Amino acid sequence: MKKHPVSLTVNTDTYDLLIEPRKTLLATLRDTIGLTGTKEGCSTGDCGACTVIVDGKAVTSCMMLGVSANGKEITTVEGLASRDQLHPIQQAFMDKGGYQCGFCTPGFIVASKAFLDENPNATEAEIRHALGNNICRCTGYTKIIEAVMSAAEVMRNS
Amino acid sequence: MPRIFREVITLRNFEFFEPTTIEDASNLLTQYNGKAKLLAGGTDLIIEMKARTATPEYVISLENIPGLVGIDYDEATGLRIGALTKMRTLEQDPTIRERYTALAEGAGEVGGVQIRHLATVGGNISHGSPAADTAAPLLALGAQVNIASADGERTVPIESFFLGPGQTVLETGEIVTGFECPPRGANEGSQYIKQKIREVMDLAFVGVASSAKTDNGAVSDVKIGLAAVAPTPLRATDAEAIVNGNSLTAELLEQAGTAASAQSSPISDLRCSAEHRREIVGVLTRRTLQAAADRAQG
Amino acid sequence: MSEYAVLGKRVTRVDALEKVTGAAQYGGDVHLPGMLHGKFVRSAHPHAKILNIDTSEAEKLPGVRAIVTQDDVESGRRVFATDKVLYLGEPIAAVAATDPDIAEEAADLIKIDYEVLPAVQDVMEAIEPDAPRLHSDDTKDSPARRAITAELRKLERDKSPADHSARIAELNTQLEATEDDVYYNISAETHSAAGDVEQGFAESDLVVEDTYVIPRVHQTYMEPHVSVADVESTGKVTVWASTQGPFAIRSGIAGTLGIPLNQINVVATTMGGGFGGRFGVALTHVPAVLLSQKTGRPVKIQMTREEEFTDGRPAPGCVIKLKTGVKNDGTILAREGLAFWDSGSVSGASIGSTIRLRGVYKFPHLKVDAYGVYTNKSGTAAYRAPGTPQVAFAGESQLDDIARKLDLDPVEFRLKNMRVEGDPVPAGPNEPKVGYKETLQAVADAVDWKNRTKGPNQGWGVAIGDWTNGCGPGGMFVSIHEDGSARIFHGSMDITGTDTALAQIVAEILTLSYEEVAITRGDTDSAPYATGSGGSVVTFTMGNTAKLAAEDTRRRLLELAAERLNTDVESLELKDGKVSTIEADPPKSIGFGELAAYSLSTTGGPIVGKGSFARKPSTPALAAQIAKVEIDPDTGRIKVLKMAASQDVGFAINPMAVEGQIEGGAVQGYAWATMEEMQYNEEGNVNPGFVDYRVPTTADLPTVESVIVEVEAPDGPFGAKGVGEPPITPTLATMANAVADAVGIRITELPMKPEKVVDALHGNGK
Ligand SMILES: Cc1cc2nc3c(=O)[nH]c(=O)nc-3n(C[C@H](O)[C@H](O)[C@H](O)COP(=O)(O)OP(=O)(O)OC[C@H]3O[C@@H](n4cnc5c(N)ncnc54)[C@H](O)[C@@H]3O)c2cc1C
Ligand code: FES
Ligand code: FES
């Protein structure tokens, strides 16, 4: 089957790839590019473990074709921290204990970042509603919400 | 029926096209009739392809065709929504929230935020699911569906767009380009409610949207859309007739609810029984009618 | 607990950085050069004879490297179905190919001929004589018939001159009359009794009887099962696995495939949750090894979410018939329970937990009978306090009804009947030091129970659940480096933050800061044996091990320092990472780093402390929860307004981690009560995905308020108890009791989906 040239920016790097159209963006990131921080928990759009940011919007990368990412800018969990500083959301997840097994964590952090970037003053109810595309089975969500709320405050103040 | 277990991680191979005009897209659809699928947001199609309930050999992306995204409102001609407009955009658009509230609510009920960043309104309707969350609102808001192909354009009222589960009036080579709804005044209100278990990320057990105009306490122009309670989304016309021209009393609402239940023809499945669905149609018809009227009064 | 410097503090977990940056390596992230991909051929029917397996077409497909079936399993242990499939999705063969898609295509090309047999999915149907049978030799007597047989045997054995012939004749007649009173498809049974329940019920003022139905639910760990196996030409096996028990996997592979333990190395990757469901070897580990043996190449098998639902090992559902007798003053006298556990196709459901129907109450009379029942579903496994949420749902729902009928406060009623230290446990030993009353009182205080208020359609529910953490062997080393820092080396899996707790314990004992202690988890080749991470064992077992290892290290440091400072060990102590003289005059001290360097360059060698632990008595722990809910009586939807959860954890080594366990467990329990259920029809599981198997999201719940209660466990490290499992146990009943309080309906069959709530309300004439 014909492969397609795809040029996309992931975090800060540009990749020129030749990929089969049947590969999802998730598969492209994990298998082709080798960034395995983005997780696959269901492959059906239901769990949010595969969340990445495409042109500023959080999406489930298992529900998008790699070829559809052509020309787009993608941020994954690997792209949030700078060399010497974690993103405030990452820091808050550490400080507040917003994870246990950690499998859902990249998806939650990335979804939270996209949401807070657009809604810096979000209330707890809005955050709880907006993160409903992500499943965490370990934490019961209390500490995840605490982490996102406290990160929002840090982000507002900086 | 024997089930086959699939790797859901990748899809069957297919050839991928990104036409830049409706005409090209339409011609490809015709050329590969039966073997091609349009791709909008992909949130229905990719699921089907992973489950192998769809195995298109050709996938035609609509993304590069200009003019399919966007929301326009004009006091005289009303609302126009491009087929490729994302659910998240509809949900957040100020005009839609204010004037076509049920549609903003319906769009906001689809999946979660990440899904709504992908899912389009055109895909939701074209997929033909009886449970589509924008179907009942569009029915209640009197939407027309704009359809185009290499041969020309046509418009059908949304009531006659759906033919059965997964079946629509779209002919070979036809593409939904958008939706139009009549203009709405300040004395018109609408609401959509979805019966579900989880607060977000649940498919509708039942979906009901109502729209109404109020004049001196009486409601008029009432439209009620029902989803997930029949082979297609449908209008609860009997219930509409009961309330139209009257002021809403508890008794009248009760009658309207009963009429809407009677007009539905739900099935029992693993989600719930037909009886439950029918009962909830009544409940949500009453509630959305009341809310539509309340909103109409400001 | 201010007496400690590191323990009891909310420290950041040792694995925090790798988890928030996406750097942590899970099973699915393992990728080896030349790796093949494995896929299963699975049964298309819930019950059928396999007439023929034809792999010829699949073998011809380019890229296919190997196909394995049960014929390849020399020990004969069931990895694949051979003669008969027992559930939809049971593996029949596995294929390895160069690409997952080719493997999948090959799996489709394997033709299986079946003779379809009738299937049985419902436990109560399965025990009937006309039910389809999964296995032979599967009948057991009902409790009534057992009683007759037991008495007969006793009389026949009686050597006294008394004449029993009349009674014997009578019993024989009864036995004949109850000939049909046997259960079919029985996989296991347990029976316990204390006192005399008949007498207890006779003395009771109120006796209530109900039947409770609890559905089968999936642990739903977020990372599906995955393993990568690599078999070298020497036969040496390496398996990268997401597992709760690397050593159990090692012995499982050894036993199934006849490989010596020293030829198997299990490398446990970071694991995306387990909750009890990630101990088995058959699912992916053994098939991956078989395929790698056959191809000489690494093989990865990753289950999809759908496969998790059809071929995972979920928690069993059950039907519990329960009868409880009380006095009008609220004194509980007797309880009789009969439970049928849905084992699926293999024995192993959590039937041993049925005894927990006794709760933590003083039942003078108790009788519990339990049967495991075969059905055409996958086998089951542990899920967080296995079996206990189910029985606590029955027991605590019924007590709630009794409290309502007797017009007693449900908290007071429970407190009145709770056991305290020294009380006999029905059909068990006496209670050790326990904190049952304190725990229930703590959650009641947290919500100001006495002054609680509610609006229309709102209600409050309270319930408790008890559990005893497990215990198992473990080993550990602690090394002191030349710069004075320390490193722990062990082989126990961390999911919940246990590595952090171990580092805290070692730091505390060695007077180091938390940051100065690093921790490494070894593979099974290198690390000493560690019991699996399940049954709330890790903090208890490995915590005790860490304590021993740290104390051994301390001993060595003191010895070396005494040598170096020319004094005796008794006059020295550890302080701030140094060994110092206890008396300030003359003050002398020496740093750990200096001692380590000294030891390396003299005869001492590296400083390595060793801890080796077998077992100590575990202590029971209680979880108590209160929820406030609001019901929409027209739609039947339940909204949680408040959820508070207390738990006796003995001592909270890291309160943040403990709260996380309480919050997570309570939410899983909430989900079991309101939305989760694996649904089956005659064709098998019909909701193998997250669309119709709903787990809660952030939008469904408010903040869970966790309340830590600390009643020291005599044998726990620093008084700590296992915390992982108890918090799920009360929630099912908590929710049902809250719904009952809100709208006056008692739902005895979970989950409480809207339809069930609405129907129950109609039944109540509302
Ligand atoms: C996790 C998850 C949750 C979901 N939850 C909901 C929910 O709550 N409510 C709900 O209603 N839906 C839900 N969906 C379904 C889906 O997201 C919606 O139906 C969505 O609107 C489909 O739009 P799309 O652009 O993604 O469609 P696509 O998948 O791209 O297309 C859907 C179908 O329509 C055809 N099509 C698309 N665009 C056009 C067009 N312009 N003209 C003609 N044919 C076209 C395609 O060929 C395809 O057959 C969910 C899906 C997922 C994965
Ligand atoms: S893997 Fe994409 S949403 Fe679960
Ligand atoms: S931390 Fe385990 S799934 Fe969220």
Describe this structure in words.
The complex is a heterotrimer of chains A (158), B (298) and C (766). By secondary structure, chain A is of the alpha+beta class. Chain A has helices at 25-33, 88-96, 105-118, 124-130, 142-156; strands at residues 4-10, 13-19, 51-54, 57-60, 73-75. Chain A has two domains: 4-79, Roll (Ubiquitin-like (UB roll)), CATH 3.10.20; 88-157, DNA polymerase, domain 1, CATH 1.10.150. Chain A has a five-stranded mixed β-sheet with strand order 2-1-5-3-4, with helices on both faces. The longest helix of chain A is centred in the last third of the chain and has 15 residues, at 142-156. Chain B has 298 residues and is an alpha+beta fold. Chain B folds into three domains: 15-61, 2-Layer Sandwich (Uridine Diphospho-n-acetylenolpyruvylglucosamine Reductase, domain 2), CATH 3.30.43; 71-181, Uridine Diphospho-n-acetylenolpyruvylglucosamine Reductase, domain 3 (2-Layer Sandwich); 189-297, 2-Layer Sandwich (Enolase-like, domain 1), CATH 3.30.390.50. Helices cover 33% and strands 25% of the residues of chain B. Chain B is built from eleven helices and 14 strands. Chain B has helices at residues 22-31, 45-50, 87-92, 94-99, 101-109, 113-118, 121-126, 135-140, 237-243, 250-263, 274-296; strands at residues 15-17, 36-39, 58-61, 71-74, 78-82, 144-149, 152-157, 162-164, 167-168, 175-181, 188-195, 206-215, 218-227, 234-235. In chain B, the strands form four sheets. Chain B has a five-stranded antiparallel β-sheet with strand order 4-5-10-6-7. A four-stranded antiparallel β-sheet of chain B has the order 11-12-13-14. Chain B starts with 14 loop residues before the first strand and ends with a helix. Mean pLDDT of chain B is 95; it is low at 1-8. Chain C folds into four domains: 16-21 and 472-613, Aldehyde oxidase/xanthine dehydrogenase, molybdopterin binding domain (Aldehyde Oxidoreductase, domain 4, 2-Layer Sandwich), CATH 3.30.365; 31-117 and 225-302, Aldehyde Oxidoreductase, domain 3 (Alpha-Beta Complex), CATH 3.90.1170.50; 131-180, no CATH class; 435-468 and 619-761, Aldehyde Oxidoreductase, domain 4. In chain C, 29% of the residues lie in helices and 24% in strands. Chain C has 19 helices and 30 strands. Classes of the chains: A alpha+beta (158), B alpha+beta (298), C alpha+beta (766). Chains in contact: A-B, A-C, B-C. The structure holds flavin-adenine dinucleotide (FAD) and FE2/S2 (inorganic) cluster (2 copies). Flavin-adenine dinucleotide sits between chains B (37-45, 47, 62, 83, 109-111, 115, 118-120, 122-124, 126-127, 132-133, 170, 175-176, 203) and A (45-46, 63). One FE2/S2 (inorganic) cluster (FES) is lined by residues 40-43, 45-50, 60, 62 of chain A.
